[in-house]
Amino acid sequence: MYRIAMITKELVAASTEPLILSLLSGGESYGYALIQEVKRLSGDKIEWADGMLYPVLHRMENQGWIASRWGEAENGRKRKYYSLKKDGKKVLNEQREQWLAVSEVFKQLWKEQYV
Amino acid sequence: MFNLEQSITEWRRQMLAAGIKSPVPLEELEIHLREAVERQIQSGLGAPQAFENSVQQIGHANKLKSEFQKTCGVNCNAWLWFGSFGLAGTTILNLAGWFVFHRSASVFFSHQWWSDWLPNYIVWTSFIIIGVSTGFSNWRSKRKATRQ
To answer: Which of A3, A82, B77, B96 is least enclosed, having the fewest CB within 10 Å?
Structure first.
């Protein structure tokens, strides 16, 4: 049976911050939803260890990239929402350029080699 | 019989024992755990299995603790604020003692000043040093992360 190749731990770690920034650029969100969204968008190829997301979110908050607020979920339960700050948008733009540059290089290389 | 609330309390106790003592991360993790369990139960899994899966997915307490330590706690600037206010307050009181109340112990570098006032200055200055060094270390990691 065909098995989906999971993305390596190193690549997942390197892409975590730009992924969070990109997800939050679409509007505020919370930990559980961020994890599910990444899982869905990657077709289950990116799987974050749930608990590990929160230290990253806190670090990004300390760095001034994102902000947080306590809110209430539909079921009345407390929930912490994260949103993108101005500095975060700047970092996201920088990181987007870098990832696109890398992606472009691969595209060119593999186009030449395999097509 | 499996009791979800009891299991969550036990999980929380394990987290505390492993050193995740700051209320915010622990509360956030617990909210996440409850949501993950709830969703899995809704999708048809039994409560014990849903709880077990969610705990595993959240990860081991020791590993989480070391990750949270890298975020430098709840408020990195707290040391700097405490230190600055403490130092300013001590200086004001010291000056008031000297010029307003004419207390001999408040005279800078007098015999009694060393034992009465210097410890205060040392404590608040230490707070400021910790705050500045933490801030510097954060600034460096932020700069590094931005450049990466």
So the answer is: A3
Residues B89 and B39 in one domain: no
Q: pLDDT tens digits for B35-91?
A: 999 999 999 999 999 999 999 999 888 778 777 766 654 456 778 888 999 999 999
ipTM of the prediction: 0.82
Residue spans of the domains in chain A: they are: 9-114
Both B139 and B87 in one domain: the answer is: yes
Could you give the number of structural domains in chain B? 2
Q: How many whole angstroms separate alpha carbon A8 and alpha carbon A98?
A: 19
Distance CA A64, CA A43 (A): 31
CATH class of domain segment(s) A9-114: mainly alpha
- Distance (Å) from the alpha carbon of A31 to chain B's nearest alpha carbon: 7
Instruction: Verify whether the Cβ–Cβ distance A17 to B145 is below 8 Å.
Output: yes
pTM given for the model: 0.68
* Mutation site for A-interface testing, chosen from B22, B30, B31, B42 by largest number of A Cβ within 10 Å: B31
Please work out, in degrees rounded to the nearest 5, the angle formed at the alpha carbon of residue A21 by the alpha carbons of A18 and A22.
85
